[in-house]
Amino acid sequence: MAWNEPGNKGNDPWGNKGGNDKGPPDLDEVFRNLSKRFGGNGNGSSGQNLSSFSLIIILAIAFVVWGLSGLYTIKEAERGVALRFGQHNGEVGPGLHWKPTFIDEIYPVDVQSVRSVPSSGSMLTSDENVVKVELDVQYRISDAYAYLFSAVDANASLREATDSALRYVIGHNKMDDILTTGRDAIRRDTWKELERILEPYKLGLAIVDVNFLPARPPEEVKDAFDDAISAQEDEQRFIREAEAYAREIEPKARGEVERMAQQANAYKEREILEARGKVARFELLLPEYQAAPEVTRKRLYLDAMQQVMTDTNKVIIDAKNNGNLMYLPLDKLMKEKPATMPDVEPKPQQNVNSSSIPTTRIGEPLSGRPSREERARQGRE
Q: Where is the chain membrane-spanning (predicted)?
């Protein structure tokens, strides 16, 4: 039962025991009671003084609370964007700061952390093929105020710009280049195109890196493209092996060329010196030939025959009786040397008779015919 319902004879919340009080006590009466407790006389002037004093205390407490509420801290990796009545009032560095509450507003922004925005999808290439690509853009906030207020959502704007730049670059490249050797070029072109798109928007973002993840062909033709990629890798491997072989062979070839050039120069010098020696010898021989032609020719003939017969091991002997030539295999006789037997005397050869073998002196014709010099002398006579 409520305290003020009929039949309730209990005490009300205001302390009315008899139930004759019609309502709560008056505020003036409350202040008078408080004034009496503090030594006042309970009249109206004392109540007014007490009200003014209480108001001052309340205002002082409110001012202290307002002052303390303006303290804030900016972390080392953050920058604070200060707004005064909604207008930009500069940036605040790391540390403990104070701002007038309800006048300035501070928005801390992390400017050192590297963030990423992914982009992926199936895109059409320049040779009318479909390829699945994935891209990850890493960026950092370079201007905190532009990042907060140049666009409604700078991250969403960057995501849309990344998707647009990636589709533009993929649409201007062939599928083979996207899947194999042209990935680095696509990465650099996408980076440049993304910066070109973001420049007029002034989002306060700085692109740190662009990672172009391995692209994949459609599942229907994946096996064929895997074979093509393997073939291109084999091609690059063969090219590297050929280059290594060329680097190995080239020094040897250069050395061989240098050796042949030196041998040619040596042969040239030797021939020149020999020719000069022959000329000098001819110049020395000419006066002797003019003085004694016959003796000089015979001496030349003997020298020539000695030079020719020096390295030969075969002797042809003229038989004056029947005009036949006998062959004496001195080379085999020289090879078949008898073993060393000091107690056994060598047997005389039965087939060879020294008295029956005619000999020729050096300079005589071999077959009984006159020599070339004699025929030439006879012709002159």
A: 53-74
| Nearest CA among 47, 16, 13, 15 for reference residue 30 | 47
Nearest to 102 by CA among 74, 70, 72: 70
End-to-end CA distance of the chain: 182
Which residues are bridge partners to 72 per DSSP?
A: 97
**For 208-222, how does the pLDDT look when each residue is reduced to its tens digit (9 = 90+)?**
999 888 887 777 777
The pLDDT tens digits of the residues spanning 77-136 come to 888 898 988 888 888 888 888 888 888 888 999 988 899 999 888 888 888 888 888 889
Query: Distance between CA atoms of 131 and 348, rounded to whole angstroms?
Result: 104
Share of the chain residues as helix, strand and coil, in percent rounded to the nearest 5: 50, 20, 30
Give the burial string for 155-182 (b: 16+ CB within 10 Å, else e).
Answer: eebbeebbbebbbbbbeebebbebbbee
Which 8-state DSSP code applies to residue 16?
-
Mapped onto helix, strand or coil, the DSSP state of residue 126 is coil
- The pTM for the full model equals 0.47
Distance CA 150, CA 141 (A): 13
